[in-house]
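Hi all, long-time lurker, first post. I run a small reading group and we've been trying to get comfortable going from sequence to structure in the token notation. Rather than ask abstract questions, I figured I'd post a concrete chain and ask someone more experienced to write out its structure so we can walk through it together at our next meeting. Sequence below, copied exactly:
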Amino acid sequence: MVSILPTIYDSLLSPPFLEEWLSTISSMPNGKAPGPSMITYEMLKHLGPAANALLLILIRKCFASADIPDLWRQAMFFPIPKPHEWHCQLQNTHPITLLEVIRKSFVKLFYNRLSSILAAHNVLTGGNFAGLPGGTCCNPIITLKSIIHDANCTKSPLWILSQDISKAFDSVHLTMLKFALERIRLPASAVKLILSLFMNRSNRVFTAHGDTPSYQVYIGIDQGEVISPLLWVIYIDPLLSVLKKEMMDPYVLRPLSLLLTPLDDNSNLVINNLVFMDDSTLISSSKSGLEHMLSITEEFYALNNTSANHYKYVLISNSLPLTTTSNISPFLGVWFNIKGSRDFVKKQIASECNSFAATPRLAKLSAKQVVYLYNTVLIPKLEYRMQVTHLSDRDCYAATRLVHSLVKQKANFSHALPNPILYLSQALGLVNLSSHLTQCHVNNLFLMANSTTSFIQRLFVYRLMLIQFQFLIPVSPLMVVDWSLWSNMIAFNSDYIACTLASMISTPFRLQHTSFTSTSPDLTLPGHTSLYSCMSPKTFKACLKVF
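-- Answer (accepted) --
Happy to help. Here is the structure in token form:
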């Protein structure tokens, strides 16, 4: 990558000051399992000035020599069981490596420097949504939702393949990692430091019968290492960059306008893959385009000895005959329907609530304990899964009906007691699912509208223009104060952004442009009178062309 100047890394390995080191330590979480020495983050945070000064000397030595002490290469391996029998094979467990906290603090300081440089200079061009500061899984999720919504609105062919990589971190080959680091023109000393973290390592395994003897680790990067997610993003970036350059029939989001003047092609959003960490989804407008990308990814995986779990690949397309399961695909824990239907999500949410209500029904738990579990365990789970799906108050009530019944039973309340009393903070403080989801959707819309990522900014404008075109609105949808004319339409209820804008009307919050730019233009059409202001609602709905 000749466009990258090596000078951007000049400060990467400079000796850290005491303030930077103390700031790094204070940012580390409490309550975490320690490494073999049993030193915890809390101990580091309570060190005195003399101990901190001595520790800083060690950290500076590590930066100067681009190496770490041998004792930091020893770790404990904690196997977390999977739902099935593990047959005494570590590969059948979820592995967590417990490293020394001083080492992790040192690596955290190095990670903060490296990630800031990579983000500031746009070094990684593959488009992975993870690994760098500000990365969030919300962006790829709303992007995939927008693609499926566009395909349904415009009747465009869409092919989606969800891939699964087995033991992603464990499959990283250090020689190929070195090539990936040199590709972004990282200094030789920084490459040496990174590789030293994963060389000459030894692990011991926690078991029910004590620790095993130590064994040598020859491949992969540690699951519990702070910098491992960023290294995976760097490792996979060559593949994503090639996929971007060799696009064949990508899916294109073309903004639609009510004006006769055609829009510039530069306003189109071209997408052929969505990747968050090791969760990869290939997207195309044709079968041949998907096959082309799949051949590239398979070649990369074979070259790098990466194990792809083909049995867990999921293919969905609106160009294939649909079955009960072929039209549903999971992406980052959120389920998507190729037809944009909300029925599966409604059933899924109801199933989660019913399962929760059945578990503690016979347990000796108080009403407040049940409410606590519901508010802190189930609600965040539902919030995440429904972040791009709107359900009506009636649907939310139906889904949580058994939970309400359980809480009333535990509190010895009458079943005839109105549910709103359960929501009062002065009473039990049960979270109202419908109100909570409205708050979350509005918050996510604010984050999307104010995103610092150029792609998400353009995606937000595209969604506004699509709403404007679909429902014949001559002003920006942000300026609409009454959505009752469209609220009963099927096309409206399937549009996540439109539903969120409508639900915002009942809140004190509003979205408006502070300024207009090329990525955030003024969508108001000058000199045009809205058709719905000249017709009766019945006539307008009869004439409205809904995709």
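A couple of things your group might point at:
The longest strand covers residues 74-81.
The chain has 19 helices and 13 strands.
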